[in-house]
Amino acid sequence: xxxxxxxxxxxxxxxxARSVLAECLINDLGGGKWRAYSAGSHPTGxxxxxxxxxxxxxxxxxxxxxxxxxxxxxxxxxxRMDLVITVCDNAAGEVCPVWPGHPSKLHIGFPDPAAxxxxxxxxxxxxxxxxGMIEARIRTLIEAGGI
Length: 147
Known about the structure:
By secondary structure, this protein is of the alpha/beta class. The protein has helices spanning 18-29, 49-57, 89-93, 120-143; strands at 6-12, 34-40, 83-86, 104-107.
């Protein structure tokens, strides 16, 4: 059990931007000791293309990323979660499913880059800024040992 990674579920409403960014960051920064998944309470059904652009720009693989419902992780055959992180205020206030194993919960709210308006470059700047905020918090979480 000591060699198993810490499983983290990152939640947001649409599972198209913040939660996906956090999923990639945890998986890449966690050094195999952390395994992240992301989901949404009301998934959009697709990852925001600007999320994918920023992730590629920062050197992350985007293969297999998809927008999915948190119901997927409440099923008996789902991976056991150690920690559930909400990254948007809407998801934090919603009634979540009962997660098998009763994981720890943490809320870290970030602005929604998908709500940014303006030119593509201005919207990309919003995604870069939120990516930087999420990266800083994830680094702190991992360095602290998490739970």
